[in-house]
Structures are given as structure tokens and as C-alpha cells.
């Protein structure tokens, strides 16, 4: 598996936020969940146009 520096930075940021007191960790979790859902919806929207239509 390849090493991705961006993924390492994201993991480090998540670990750092989890160690801090307060709502920083909660906010990071919310942002990550929204980003993942947004990516999934965007992929679905773009890929549905490639569906074969047998008319």
C-alpha cells in the first residue's frame, strides 16, 4: 500500500483534536462525516450519468 502524506496529516489532525479538551474533536468528526457524505453523493450523481439506457 502506498504512503499518502495527506492521509497522514489528516490522521494526525484527528488524533490531535481527539486529545484536546472541548468541542474541537466533535467539530472535526462532523466535518469529516459531512465531507464523506458529500463525496459519496457527488460520486453517485456523476456516475449515474454513465448508466446504459436500452431504448
Describe the structure.
With 55 residues, this protein is an all-alpha fold. 71% of the residues lie in helices and 0% in strands. The chain has two helices and no strands. The protein has helices spanning 5-19, 24-47. It is elongated, with a radius of gyration of 17 Å. The mean pLDDT is 78.
β-strand amount: under 5%
What is the ordering of alpha helices and beta strands?
HH
Q: What kind of sheet is the major sheet? A: none
Helix content: over 70%
Roughly how many Å is the radius of gyration? 17 Å
How many β-strand stretches?
A: 0
Features of the shown structure:
71% helix; membrane; transmembrane helix; transmembrane; mainly alpha; elongated; 55 residues; 2 helices
Compact description:
This protein is mainly alpha-helical and 55 residues long. The protein has 2 helices and no strands.
Write the layout of secondary structure elements.
Blueprint: H1 5-19, H2 24-47
Helix pairs in contact: 1-2
Transmembrane segments: 27-47
Keywords: Membrane, Transmembrane, Transmembrane helix
